[in-house]
Structures are given as C-alpha cells and as structure tokens.
Design a protein that fits this description.
four-stranded antiparallel sheet; alpha/beta; ATP binding; binds adenosine-5'-triphosphate; amino-acid transport; ATP-binding; 238 residues; BCAA_Transport_ATP-bd_LivF; AAA+_ATPase; 2 domains; Rossmann fold; six-stranded mixed sheet; single chain
Length: 238
C-alpha cells in the first residue's frame, strides 16, 4: 500500500501539490484523472523521487520513501514508465529491456531469468529482440518500455499516460499488459487523459483538482458518477 500524507511539492515557482492525501491499495490498478495542470504527473514524479516533497510524507508499506534518491526509490521497488520517448532508438530491443535491470546488474542469473519471463509476457520482445527499438511502432515501443520497467520485478508501477498516441489495437495491448501486471501482484498507479480508457482498465479512480484529491472511488463508481461524467466524459451513457 502507498500512503501519501499532506504532501506539498512543486517546481520552485510554488507548490503544485497542495496537501495531497492519497491511499493506493496494494494490488490495485488506480487511475488518476483531472483537468490539465491539476498536478497528476507531478504526483508520479514525487512518488518516484524525482521531486522531493517540501512537506508531508509518502510511505510504501511501513517504509517512508519520500526524500529518498530516485535510485533508492527504484531499489525499494517503485518504477516509473515515462510518458514517451523513453527508449534508446539505436539500441536493440533486447538491450533496451536489459537496461531496466541496471540496478540489479550484479545478479546476472536473476536478470537472465527475468528477461525470459518478460519475453513470455511480451512476445514482441523475443520476436524483435535484435532490431533497433527505433524501428518499432508506437504500440510495440510501449510494450518494450513496460518490459524494461518490469525487469526489476517491481512492487509498484507508475504509468504516465500509457494510452498516449496509440491506436485502438495498441490500446488493447496496454490493457492486457496492465492486467498482466496486476495478475503478477503489482500495484499500478496510472495517470490518464483518456478517462474512459483509464477507468476501464482500473479498479480504483482518483479525481484531482488544483493539487489535491477531490474524490476517490472504485473505477466503476467513478465511471457511473454523473458529475464526473459531465466533467470528463461528455456525460454518462444511459
Ligand atoms: N518541470 C516543470 N517545471 C515547472 N513547472 C512545471 C513543470 N512540470 C509541470 N509544471 C507545472 O506544474 C503544474 C502541474 O503540472 P502536471 O504536469 O503535474 O499536471 P497534469 O495534471 O499532469 O497536467 P496534464 O494533464 O496537462 O499533463 C502545471 O501548472 C505545470 O505548468
């Protein structure tokens, strides 16, 4: 379980997160939605250690992770998949995936086993292992980004707009990947502009506004919420 308590964080020009309180249940797929500039991506950056909270704290289980260096947050089992362009285009698919295991680089046996597990989870990795990542389609690249993040067998996966720029077929692959992460026991916290898609693959939903949490509910409950529907979905289908 991730617990965020009274977090204030920002970029120098002031706090973007204005006393954020949030609980992410272990094993859930939690989708954060909200208007542009609400601070959704900032939540992910604060969780992964890229931004340090000015006030408040973040716990992973019993362990306080706010204030840790990003590499130590990663070692604690929290990995972030960046919004886009996260791969090295001239390196092969295999090399890109293996980079994800860098923090465990001394344990070669573990990395070999983990790579094999991931090729079973994402067949595209084995099919295109020797090709430069830059030759893949957007959807295929997203699979490689996921596989790279999963190399350390994380407890928590942070996804920033996983649907961005993808066609419907690639969205299906994202849906399947998130389901596979959940089946593997990982907790997924995701930010999505495509609210219908995000809540469709989530178990829980969080609505943010102006750096605070406005509302949390099950994903189903939020999808059926008329006010939220009017705000984000162009009305709830009846
Ligand atoms: N690197 C940065 N430096 C300075 N200000 C930033 C930076 N990144 C974001 N901000 C500001 O922080 C605020 C929140 O941004 P954030 O990206 O967290 O919002 P968001 O809810 O993810 O929005 P969007 O849906 O548009 O991605 C915005 O006002 C933005 O201009």
């Amino acid at each position: 379980m991730i617990t965020v308590e009274g977090v204030y964080a920002g970029y120098g020009s002031g706090d973007v997160l204005q006393g954020l309180d949030l609980v992410v249940e272990e094993g859930s797929v939690t989708c954060v939605v909200g208007p542009n500039g609400a601070g959704k991506s900032t939540v992910l950056r604060t969780l992964s250690g890229l931004l340090k909270p000015r006030l408040g704290r973040i716990r992973l289980g019993d362990r306080v992770i706010s204030g840790l260096h990003p590499a130590d947050v990663l070692s604690a089992g929290v990995v972030q998949v960046p919004q886009q362009n996260g791969l090295f285009p001239a390196m092969t698919v295999r090399e890109n995936v293996l980079l994800g295991g860098y923090v465990r680089r001394r344990d070669k046996e573990l990395l070999r086993r983990r790579y094999d597990e991931l090729t079973a989870m994402f067949p595209i990795i084995a099919e295109r292992a020797g090709d430069p990542a830059g030759n893949l389609s957007g959807g295929q690249r997203r699979m490689v980004e996921f596989a790279r993040a999963l190399m350390i067998d994380p407890k928590v996966v942070l996804l920033d707009e996983p649907s961005l720029g993808l066609d419907p077929k690639a969205l299906e692959s994202v849906r399947d990947s998130v389901a596979a992460m959940r089946e593997a026991g990982m907790t997924v916290l995701m930010v999505e502009q495509n609210v219908r898609f995000g809540l469709g693959i989530a178990t829980h939903g969080v609505v943010m506004e102006s750096g605070r949490v406005l509302l949390t509910d099950t994903a189903e409950g939020l999808s059926a919420n008329e006010e939220i529907g009017e705000l984000f979905l162009g009305g709830v289908p009846r």
